[in-house]
Amino acid sequence: MKQIENLLGFRESIKVVDATLRDGGLVNDFFFEDDFVNELYKANVRAGIDYMEFGYRASKKVFDESKFGKWKFSSDEHIRQIVGENNSDLKLAIMADIGRHDKDDFDQKVNSPVDLVRVAAYIQQMPEAIDMVEDAAKKGYETSCNIMAISHANDNEIKVALDMLGKSPVDVIYIVDSFGSIYPEQMTRIADMYLEFAAKYGKKVGVHAHNNQQLAFANTIEACGDGVDWLDATYLSMGRGAGNCAMELLIGFLKNPKYNVYPIFRFIEEHMIELRKKGVVWGYDLQYLMTGLLNQHPRSAIQFTKEKRTDYSEFYKDLLI
Length: 321
Description:
Largest sheet: 8 strands, parallel, barrel
CATH superfamily of the largest domain: Aldolase class I
Strand order of the largest sheet: 1-2-3-4-5-6-7-8
Shape: globular
CATH topology of the largest domain: TIM Barrel
Number of helices: 13
CATH class of the largest domain: Alpha Beta
Number of strands: 8
Order of helices and strands: HEHHEHEEHEHEHEHEHHHHH
Oligomer: single chain
Distance between the termini: 40 Å
């Protein structure tokens, strides 16, 4: 039974990570204008956000650079063009996606504006993920590992992965509900499992939730109440498919006086609404609900959305095949 103070009290150990550029970039192929990124950075500083994720550092050997905006590759040079020397309390992060990254693209931390390298991997990729974590840690970065699609893994597989990560230099281990299929009752059980290994090895636990069933915020604060300290969110829920936990909801909920929701509302009003007016589409819809209910990857729902289909019942029948 969670303690009420875990939900209503101030907890200094909580860290909020803004993933708008990275998860949101999956919606528009990372074609964000520099003014948008600069204003997002300033909004995060003013709102007291702890970390801002500046997209992926994807390998140019894997991805055609001409088909994506620069935040798919997030070079140190491009980040510095936005933040300068980053004379603020906001720390900067980038994500390395296992199988789609190149360790040689990561300089020593002393030469980089990046503080945190977030490694994303499926459970069967743990040896490669740990290799990347070890490389980033040796270079001086903070590290996290996002174990993706855990709703497709059984408890024994998760425990083996957690034990492997516990023995690595990783700082934070993330619960990731990639398909938006997890319910709060399940999140509690999963969080307890992660926290048990975290306590054993001296790690922190984070949560990254998707909103296919409109449960991203509920699952995030459920995990928070159970003792998970690192909380991912995005402005106006922008993210792949149904999106993520809304930053405005999360900051409005948290009781730490360092956080200020007003700059978030201001940024949404001036920039996020404009993105939607320009035709960028994300957020809860029936097709994403369906893939969440069936614990399926949202790629088919994303394609459904791109084709501007509205034959929802037919789409659902196709998912059942």
